[in-house]
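One chain shown below:
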Amino acid sequence: MLKRFVIKVVLFFLLINICNTAFSQVSSTGGSSFTTDTTFRRAPVIDSSYLNKDIFELIARQALNGSVVKLKQSQDIVTSMQNHIANSSQKKINGYRIRIFFDNKQDARVKSENIRQSFTESFPGVGVYWTYDAPYFKVTVGDLRSKSDAMKMLKRLQGSYPSAFIVREHINFPPL
């Protein structure tokens, strides 16, 4: 059973390799009407069912058909992977957020805390960041990697927060 699986996987990757080679030969000779567009590339979709889970534990589990994968590896690999995941949660990357409040009046602190609380209740899955950058109190929301994602979120929020706008900031690294 395991042999068949391995053979199928090898054949699959061999077929992919052959197709990629054939496509690159056709496109390099100019003999095809296919064109490659490098200006737009979709970001890879993250399978949320694997989010914050130990990949080594998932691989070692018994499958539904009873097959088992045994890993023989150094403990250093597992340790370094866990360290990488722990460190990446502290990293920041360039991205976008939506500023829903920005004020420096006498009651700005209370207003900003109220807005932060109400937003957290209305949108529980979206990160809310409250900052004081003298003399302004700011409430910024979201961790968006692209401007198009930020514009979609802004459109969703403009009904509740008409003065909201997009800001470019360092955002939290996506969870691994």
User: Anything to note?
Assistant: Residues 76 and 82 are 10 Å apart (CA to CA).
